[in-house]
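#onboarding

Welcome to the new folks! Below is a worked example of what a typical request in this channel looks like: someone posts a single protein sequence, and someone else replies with the predicted structure as tokens. Don't worry about understanding the tokens yet, we'll cover that in week two.

Example request:
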Amino acid sequence: MVSIQGLRARFDDLFLPLHGAHQAQNAAVALASVEALLGEAPLDEELVRAAFAEFTSPGRLEVVRHSPTIVLDAAHNPHGAEATAAALEDSFAFDPVVGVIGVMGDKDYEGVLAAFEPHMDHLVVTQNSTPRAMSAEALGQVARGVFGEDRVTVVPDLADAIDRAAALAEAGQAFGDGIGAGAVLVTGSVVTVGEARAMIRPVGRDRNAGGS
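Example response:
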């Protein structure tokens, strides 16, 4: 639930079916942009409520499977990774969290890894299918320097990497207390997340988080 002071009016207790404080900030920008484009008249409150309730953001903290939960987020720089990590802590209670990361070679991949390291119990390193992708082996070497040898598994094929991570998440006792439900976070690149999304039919297709 969010409350937004717009350019023309204030809207309280809007239901936003997305996860993370940064998503609420994005929604506020969207609302203000519409107000600026449409002139001086305030927006109809019921229309705003209906629009917010239908918001989707594919590939942005999008839950696409349960048992174990698989979440997609296209964070590809340190700032985005920090926002995603904060949202994970704020919106979910996953234990353990197993990451699947595939990055582009021209990005700050070490900064992305450092942002996620405190929030992931194990990391499965992979790669997407584009020529710009950093190889899983090369990324794995960097990841071991950030996460440590025992917390990194290298699986070049993305589909196999997701399967391996799901198995690790279900075997959560291996990483600590295992008192919560394990989850997989697929991240590191818009392309990686897009390819993963094509492999996994999202829960309530094109919904950010819905029923099972």
